[in-house]
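Researcher: Re-running this chain for the archive, since the previous output was lost when a drive failed. Same request as before.
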Amino acid sequence: MAQHAGYKRVAYNDALSAFKTGFDTDNWQSEQDLRKAFNAVKREKYPWSANLSQNASKNAIRDLGDAITRWKKGQNRFPTFKKRSDKCSYQADNGAGRVEVYKQRINLPKIGGVRMREELRYTDEITKVVVSRKKDRWFVSILIRCDSNNYKHQPPLFDDKPPIGVDVGINTLATCSDGDTFDNPRPLKRYERKLARANRALSRKVKFSKNWYKAKKQLVSLHHRISNIREDAHHQATVRIVRKASAIGIETLNISGLLKNRKLAKPLSDSALSRFLTLLKYKAERRNVEIIQADRFFASSKTCSHCGQKKAELDLSERTYHCSECGISLDRDLNAAINLCPA
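Model: Regenerated structure tokens:
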């Protein structure tokens, strides 16, 4: 799989180099021209490619053609060369219906049958298969063309479920207006000392030596564990929230602006609140649960959920909201969640 990912990178860079060499504003080289030119020289320049699936190179040059088309339309910058350190992945299919999956086994071209950890949920035509490496594990992303009417695997929405407001934060990942809270595991903070030791161990090794690769593998595994802990907390919280709500009110966060605060940048990155809200949105959409986003400048934390009185200032250290008008006192995050709850 790593060889196929490397073949994809080589084909992409070779085609991009040919495009830049023969660059002519009056006569653009099409994707088909680039593919024919690469096929004419690949056996001589890259004899090892004969043992690999040619789908990797074909799809790589197709991706380059799409990138050039978007560049000509002004949608993105001119494509750049791929590096060894970039994402390790390749597209394995040769068109719709060319890759077979049977239960927990997928048949990849030139590689053969590979066991998967779980079966596919759908059984219609497979249109795209992308194999990628994340940390030290391999994943396959399978795109299937199916009729959405035939796959309503989510339970129906019941009218007796109440609307819920959700306030996200650093200390508590999510606070619901009904009083439920979901803890934020903060895995980066938990494993910060281990990460520091792993990084020091890697820096002491001779680069590209056997011990260097061992130390690098340990560091990668630690990062993977941190990512898994964070992802598990997000998925469990979003599923539980969506299953008990008829509508969900959330805030509109300016994450990029908040990250400019040096005191909040690390805990915000560790919490990944933007990804949490993205998961909540798509899971709510699958269950036909309406998502209502508050205005970006709506002061959900400063406004009293009982009388509507708004405070001029509210420090982050104040975890309990006290209203001077009606005298109510409650948790700061719960007050914000109640304000975000749809009427």
